[in-house]
Write a structure and sequence with these properties.
This protein is of the alpha/beta class. It has a single domain, classed as Nucleoside phosphorylase domain (Rossmann fold). The protein is 38% helix and 29% strand. The chain is built from 7 helices and 10 strands. It has a 5-stranded mixed barrel with strand order 5-9-8-6-10, surrounded by 4 helices. The longest helix is centred in the last third of the chain and has 25 residues. The radius of gyration is 17 Å and the shape is globular. The termini are close together.
C-alpha cells in the first residue's frame, strides 16, 4: 500500500506553515466542516487538516482520514504545555505514548486514565507511539532544529487548558507525563483501534502553570512554527525511509 500521511493540527496556526509554505497542494476536500488539504511534502503523499480543539474533534478527524482518505500513518502536530521543569518553551516533545488525563473511573476500581473495554478486549491505559515514526521524528529534530531541546516521554490529553500549579502537579504525579495538550490521546486512541501507526510531535508554548495563559499568548506562534519545520523535514523523505 502506498504511504499516505495524515497530519492533524488543532488550530490554524499549527498547520498553516505546512499548507501555505511547505506542501505542494493538489486539492482541498471538505467533510464534516473540516478542510482536508491533499498534496505532497517532498515525495510523500499527505493529507493535512485542522481538526479543531478537543478530543472529540480530534478523534472524528482521525477517523475521517482513515476511512475516507486511506492514510497509512497519523501524525499529530502542534503546541503543548510542559510538565517538566527541564523542558523549556520552544523545545520539542516526541511522545513515547499518550493517555487521557480526564478519564477517571476510579469509583469503579480503575486507576485514572484506564479505559475498560467491552467483551474480551484488553484494559487500555496508554497508547504507544510507533517506534519507526519516533525515530524519524528524533532524526528530523537533530537535522532541522539542532539548537532546540528535544525530549521524549509520555503526553497526556484532556478537554481542558492546564493553567494552575495544582493541575500540573496532579498530572505529573498521577501519569508521569512530560507535557499536556488537548488532542493527542484521542488521535492515538483512534489510531490504536484502527491499527494505524502514529506519533505525536509537540512544541512547548507554556509551562502549564499559573502563568500559562500569558505564556501561551506570547509564544504559541513561534512554538507552532518550530514544530511545523521539524515535521516537514521528517515527512518529506518518509516514503524512501521505509
Amino acid at each position: 500500500m502506498k504511504t499516505r500521511i495524515g497530519i492533524i493540527g488543532a488550530m490554524d496556526l499549527e498547520i498553516e506553515k505546512l499548507t501555505k509554505e511547505e506542501m505542494n497542494s493538489e486539492n482541498i476536500i471538505t467533510k464534516a466542516g473540516l478542510r482536508f488539504h491533499i498534496g505532497k511534502l517532498g515525495d510523500t503523499d499527505v493529507v493535512i487538516v485542522r481538526s479543531g480543539i478537543g478530543k472529540v474533534n480530534a478523534a472524528l478527524c482521525a477517523q475521517i482520514l482513515i476511512d475516507c482518505f486511506q492514510v497509512t500513518h497519523l501524525i499529530n502536530t502542534g503546541i503543548a504545555g510542559s510538565l517538566d521543569h527541564s523542558i523549556n518553551i520552544g523545545d520539542i516533545v516526541i511522545g513515547t505514548d499518550a493517555m487521557h488525563h480526564d478519564l477517571d473511573l476510579s469509583p469503579l476500581g480503575y486507576d485514572p486514565g484506564i479505559l475498560p473495554t467491552l467483551g474480551d478486549g484488553p484494559v487500555l491505559s496508554s497508547f504507544p507511539a510507533d517506534p519507526f515514526l519516533r525515530s524519524l521524528a528524533a532524526r528530523a529534530c537533530r537535522d532541522a532544529a539542532p539548537d532546540i531541546g528535544v525530549h521524549e516521554g509520555r503526553i497526556v490529553s484532556g478537554d481542558q487548558f492546564i493553567s494552575s500549579s495544582e493541575q500540573r502537579t496532579r498530572l505529573v504525579k498521577t501519569f508521569h507525563a512530560i507535557c499536556t495538550e488537548m488532542e493527542g490521546a484521542a488521535i492515538a486512541h483512534t489510531a490504536y483501534l484502527n491499527d494505524i501507526p502514529f506519533v505525536i510531535l509537540r512544541a512547548i508554548s507554556d509551562k502549564a502553570g499559573d502563568e500559562a495563559d500569558v505564556e501561551f499568548g506570547t509564544f504559541e506562534h513561534k512554538a507552532a512554527e518550530n514544530c511545523a519545520n521539524v515535521l516537514a523535514h521528517m515527512v518529506r523523505d518518509i516514503s524512501r525511509a521505509q
